[in-house]
Write the structure tokens for this entry.
Amino acid sequence: MKTEKVRCLILGSGPAGYTAAIYASRANLNPVLYEGIQPGGQLTITTEVENFPGYPHGVTGTALMEDLRQQAARFGTDIRAGIATAAHLSASPYRITIDGEQTVETETLIIATGATAKYLGLADEQKYAGQGVSACATCDGFFYRKKTVAVVGGGDTACEEALYLSSLAAKVYLIVRKNYLRASMAMQQKVRETPNIHILFAHNAIGLYGENGVEGVHLLRRKGEPDEEQVSLPIDGFFLAIGHTPNSGLFKEWLDTDETGYIQTLPGSPCTKLPGVFAAGDVADPHYRQAITAAASGCKAAMEADRYLLATK
Ligand code: NDP
């Protein structure tokens, strides 16, 4: 297998990966960046991004990511298509296999592989992608001002998304499959005290309908019970908040992860327990998951990589 030696390897091409690349390039670390499964990351599947500083009129997710890519390329990042398929982090230099056919040996590794929102697996989620189906209220909520939306899930994320949407939309339905919320008591209380949030317990979404985008959701009430029934609920937007899966599988053998799989770093820093290995963006962030927070952690990761290389010279 062909082996290449580099000083800084970045995995992932979302805001964390590209920001790490910009900083690492400018620090002369000659970074190599592999784009991964979804070049440009999760932002490429949202529509308009209106909360990223520096874009007063908003920007599409794809345009923002193209800007970041060009900025990283301008400073010399070697950006390549390819997916990390194996990791060997037992000792430095760390070894990453790309596409199962090539090994990169690196002194520093920045893992910015992101997270993937979970979907229910309904065919209609694909059919209405970008037309009323979203997995990010902060990204897309603004388009539902004074409209009716539904959020699926009963955890902290779902409650947070419902609360966020309640300040924009006229009405928010929280579709919860069980008879109770899993969210923290404080979050539950906030949701219950918000007059325009209506919780539908024991409801499962089974399909969506609409001519031009989502116009409603088909629900199964009390699934599996003798009085199970199907109901339809008119809505304009359908938000999934049933959890995210961090793309950390390759690294679990070598790094600490929490029970969901998020890579654990020193609080407030991208440093993992391995010297020279950093985790930035959503793969290490169960809480904020914003483009700007991912970008900031990518910046920190590159700065830490630079410091590490200087210290180990
Ligand atoms: P959780 O795993 O906590 O909750 C997922 C929710 O989605 C549950 O209510 C679950 O239902 C529901 N769900 C899962 N799959 C399906 C499905 N197929 N159909 C219908 N419903 C489904 O994920 P979260 O993203 O909410 O939270 C992840 C972690 O992040 C938690 O530890 C949470 O506390 C934390 N967090 C903290 C925040 C804060 O402190 N501000 C904000 C956001 C998250 P069921 O209960 O039936 O399994």
